[in-house]
Specification:
alpha/beta, Rossmann fold, six-stranded mixed β-sheet, four-stranded antiparallel β-sheet, 10 strands, 26% strand
Length: 216
């Protein structure tokens, strides 16, 4: 029986996407929406081909400014002198990692598709950032567990992923789901569920796309 990729509950509502011709499934317990397995990209090569169409480099002013805003919104207000950080899902160019290195002594990177710090998992970190990554997770609990295993007690996980609209009508109009690599969508309720499961404290959200969690 099909179950939610976050909470494993089978209380799912199938919602048919007439534009693309497949189902999403909405979990009525934790509020996650995820795409049907039958229509996911089949290989890392296919995923990389899609990612490579994006201008994710230090040469793109908008891309750099996105990370600067993320730092100002989610990290600087914590007012902590972090000693170590990991950018989880760094992409083809470690733009965010380079910005973090301006005020954090040790900054490593990880990405499932692109080159990253070879021994990143030999460390644990005071801060882990993950921007525009969670929506790509086909097995979100697997990756979230991996992230949290690398976070020190008392450390902070700062995530950026657009929260899903409240209504199905708005969801199907939503530009964010049209990226073929965006397959799992969250809400504040989803992150509240995750905080309870993993013993995290929800420190901050902008109620749009940013969530900051502290590991107890």
């Amino acid at each position: 029986m099909l179950s939610c990729k976050i909470c494993k509950n089978s209380n799912l509502n199938p919602i048919f996407d007439e534009q693309f011709g497949f189902n999403y499934y909405h979990c009525k317990v934790c509020d996650t929406i995820f795409q049907s397995e039958d229509y996911l990209l089949k290989s890392k090569a296919d995923e990389k081909s899609s990612y490579d169409t994006h201008n994710n480099s230090s040469e793109c002013e908008g891309y750099v400014n996105m990370f600067k805003d993320f730092i100002e919104t989610s990290i600087k207000p914590l007012d902590i002198n972090f000693e170590s950080a990991l950018d989880y899902g760094c992409g083809p160019g470690p733009v965010l990692a380079d910005l973090l290195r301006e005020f954090i002594p040790l900054v490593n990177t990880y990405d499932r598709i692109y080159p990253h710090t070879p021994n990143y998992d030999q460390f644990t970190y005071d801060l882990i950032t993950s921007t525009e990554v969670f929506e790509h997770f086909n097995k979100p609990m697997k990756y979230i567990e991996h992230v949290l295993s690398l976070l020190n007690p008392g450390g902070y996980l700062c995530v950026s992923t657009y929260f899903k609209p409240d209504s199905y009508d708005e969801f199907f109009k939503w530009w964010y789901r049209r990226d073929e690599t965006h397959i799992t969508f969250y809400s504040i309720k989803t992150f509240e569920y995750l905080a309870k499961v993993f013993d995290l404290e929800l420190v901050y959200t902008d109620n749009k796309k940013i969530i900051v969690l502290k590991k107890n």
